[in-house]
Structure formats: structure tokens, C-alpha cells
Design a protein that fits this description.
There is one protein chain. The protein contains six helices and five strands; from the N terminus they run E-H-E-H-E-H-E-H-E-H-H. With about 150 residues, it is of the alpha/beta class. The chain has one domain: Sugar-phosphate isomerase, RpiB/LacA/LacB (Ribose 5-phosphate Isomerase B, Chain: A, 3-Layer(aba) Sandwich), CATH 3.40.1400. Strands 2-1-3-5-4 form a five-stranded parallel sheet, sandwiched between helices. Strand 4, helix 4 and strand 5 form a beta-alpha-beta unit. Keywords: Isomerase.
Length: about 150
Amino acid sequence: MLIAIGSDPNAHGLKDAVAEYLVELGHEVHDFGANDPLYPKTAIAVAQSVANGEVDRGVVMCGTGIGVSISANKVPGAHCALLTDAYQAERAQLSNNANMVAFGAQVTGVESVKRLLRDYLSVSYLENDRSAPKLAVLHEYDVGRPTRS
């Protein structure tokens, strides 16, 4: 799987650890860097690569994860979940078909992020899940994307 990652300078160390871990898991990484202190720029760039189908998934990071998740979700076709626990990691994909996840370097440790990423990447969305009607409503707001049922 090709996974895009990016962060602000606050999460540079976490981003590097995540990139290394994803490679260990057998994924290819497209690193958008960690130099821009204006995290929306990096989060939006990662989200655009996901929404355009250039990569399979995206991972964005800042101090809390909140700012990058809000920024990524501004991009039509990008669906970013802020993860803080194992149940959210599974449900982000199983129930919500999230194609991106966000983490906060100042609130979630590296080993916890690795575990959450492993849990998130180990499951796939179920097309006929009970959440499908809910997602169809959300997808109606994505510009240029068909409604899913």
C-alpha cells in the first residue's frame, strides 16, 4: 500500500518514526515533510494526494492532531479520523471508511501510534455495513464524487 505522510515541525520526530514503521510493515511511503509550521498546507497536500488517488491512504500529524484532521477534512474526498484508541482505529476503517488518519505528537506516544496504525491498516471497510447509509449522506457533500450506498 502507498501511504502519504506529513506533519508540522512539532511532530517531526513522530512522522519519521511512523515512516520507518510503515516501511517495516511492508508499505511504501510518500513523505510530504515536516518543515512548514503552517500545518494546514501539509495536511491539505497529503489529503489532495489521497483524494486524487495518487496514494492509498494518508497519515498526518501535528501537536494535537486536531488541526491536521480539520485541515485534511476540508479536501473533498479526504476522510480523516483523529485516532486516540484501538477501537477508534478499527472503526475509522470498518464503519467510516476513513482514507486518512491523524495523530497528535504531544498527546500520543510513538508506540501507541504504531499500534493504532497497525490496527487501522489491518481492517477493510465493509461495503454492506450498517454504516453505509450514513456514509452515503456524507459522500453527497464531496464535490464530484458519486453517492455510495
